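ok so I'm stuck.
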Amino acid sequence: MALWAKARVWMAGPWLSLHRARTLGTRATPTPKAVLPFEAVPRCPGHRWMRVLQIWKEQGSENIHLDMHQTFQELGPIFRYDVGGRHMVFVMLPEDVERLQQVESPHPRRMFLEPWLAYRQDRGLTCGVFLLCGRVGMRTEGAGSLGAERKPAREDPEARLPGNHPGGWRDGDHWLQMQILPIPWGSCVPWGGGGEPGPFLQGQKKKDDACRQGARTCTGLRGACVWVGLLPSSRNGPQWRLDRLRLNPDVLSLQAVQKYTPLVDRVARDFSRALKARVVQNARGSLTLDIRPSIFHYAIEASHLVLYGEQLGLFAQHPNPDSLNFIHALEAMFKSTVQLMFVPRSLSRWTSASVWNEHFEAWDYIFQYANRAIRRIYQELALGHPWRYSGIVAELLMRADMTLDTIKANSIDLTAGSVDTTAFPLLMTLFELARNPEVQQALRQESLVAEARVSENPQRATTELPLLRAALKETLRLYPVGVFLERQVSSDVVLQNYHIPAGTLVKVLLYSLGRNPAMFTRPERYQPQRWLDSRASGTRFPHLAFGFGVRQCLGRRLAEVEMLLLLHHVLKNFLVETLVQEDVKMIYRFVLMPSTLPLLTFRAIS
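replied:
not stuck anymore, here's the structure
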């Protein structure tokens, strides 16, 4: 498309005055006649295992979005990036997103999150659609090539593992994952690290529980030993699609939005009333506070009501301690995910044992929190209590076209994914409106004009508040809560005139895409109107904060409704102010979040 092609002409000069930016990196790659090989893709300097060491030393990678942003300036709009055993290609132009969409398979794949899968494997739990459709194959670990993909030692029938698959055997709906370790022949040891020799497989399927729990055992391949773990199998592609199609009607469809929007509106009104009660208690008619805890309570309260049909009473003076613990568990889970996701488990289990314990304990609490609610719903429906719409989980149980374990798995994914991803964009929107009072006033005027119609039918908020919807897009352009979009390409593809082979993990950096001056005029400015002006960039380039294609975020419409209605009720009742005009430092902890947020003042509007 010609519109996408315009994005290839970058504006000269650095984007955000980053150091050492070169003119070479400010223009898209010229298009020669011959497609260049994959090896010619510019490579980000640095050693992949030194990056792992740095992540371990710093307990995360909080500035990865800034590091990648600067690398684009230095190397151009595409580069290769290796960290540990992971090999990736980064892009940041919309034309490359469009190309990824064109070659997308019916079962799109992305990088699997080994820490999340490891927890579910260890606890014997079903995976939801967020984790299904992972990579299939054998991960080998040996001297000099830790984590690299490679074939068995001998390409003969004896070297192939059972199940006619070179990388493992089928166990139910999974392939057992083989990690080959350079251990001398016959000296296999159990996973726990003790001295007892492990049993020989010798080409036979292992059926005992030690295998399922992650034991090292001999494959019969000379000089090699394996760690057995679970990876989603190729069946996960069709299974992912089947589960996703069954979830969409009750989560993502417009009919579902119509059902749960009144529930979200109830919580948004409760939030506004609770905040107003605190404001009027102050003789000055205003309240200055750290609004972050209140916004997190709102996100949990709204999501819990929509999913499970229950209100938690988090706006009371003394909130439910279980919900506070749930927030802490989410924070610990996301932080530990970044610390573990790039380091092979066979290594991190020794170097980061305490982090693994923290990660598992956080997930334990998240699962317990959600399971309690699911059990209550299940019992009430089983007892035949009078039924009316009471949330997504009840709808899924009543529909009865998914197993209870699958419903639980996806409900917990939605529970864990519906808090931070809603709360942080709300916080950054309130901050931007506080330091852009003219934008705030325009949004307030829109909300006041639409108040009667939205109050009569909250579902009208999505059509009656176009500028407020544009403001949320603008927030997510500047502060994308999910920094990366990723696809493991299922077929060969050409990006920026480089051949990208099938199986390559391609990551789109939304942080850089949203700050490219060739696409967004004065990208550092907060200008929601750009998404409504037919001549502006917002209408020419897609809103990608929730992903694209059939694998876009399952909870995107719930998140949009939660953010839209909260801001609508807050803007009707309060002026939001701040003394701070400087940008907020954003850090990456699996989601992009502010390191600190300035105090905000809420002044009641009579």
